Amino acid sequence: QVQLVESGGGLVQPGGSLRLSCQASGFSLDHYAIGWFRQASGEEREGVGCITSDGTTYFPDSVQGRFTISKDTSKRTVDLQMNSLEIEDTAVYYCNAYLPWAEYWGQGTQVTVSS
Q1: pLDDT of the residue at 99
Q2: Which residues pair with 7 in a beta bridge?
Q3: What share of the chain has pLDDT > 70, as a percent?
Q4: What does the DSSP assignment read for 66-100?
Q5: In angstroms, rounded to a whole number, what is the distance separating the alpha carbons of residues 42 and 4?
Q6: Which end of the chain is more exposed for a tag (fewer CB within 10 A), N or C?
Q7: Beta strand residue intervals within 9-65, DSSP E
Q8: CA–CA separation, 19 vs 38, rounded Å?
Q9: CA angle in degrees (0–180, nearest 5) for 93-96-97
């Protein structure tokens, strides 16, 4: 059974850092990519980065240079490291797996950037 569980969200001040983790089960991170998305209140869900099966990462301009993604295939975790956080980064963050048979989402974790 495929399952994605995010953790690590919380309240952080502007300029601070936060590390989110996505625990994956039911499929191999060696074979499939994982994406990170976020959805702010009243906004559409947007991608903030992904890591491919071979470890290549991609980021949109909005977070390039501030966010990084890494994975530990033995632990089945994919981490999103967020630095230099801005108020505009406040959102619910989700990890995503687009597998050949279905697309899966985690339940999300709230990140609030506020002074």
Answers
A1: 93
A2: 21
A3: 100
A4: TEEEEEETTTTEEEEEE-S--GGG-EEEEEEEE-S
A5: 24
A6: N
A7: 10-12, 18-25, 34-39, 46-51, 57-58
A8: 14
A9: 165
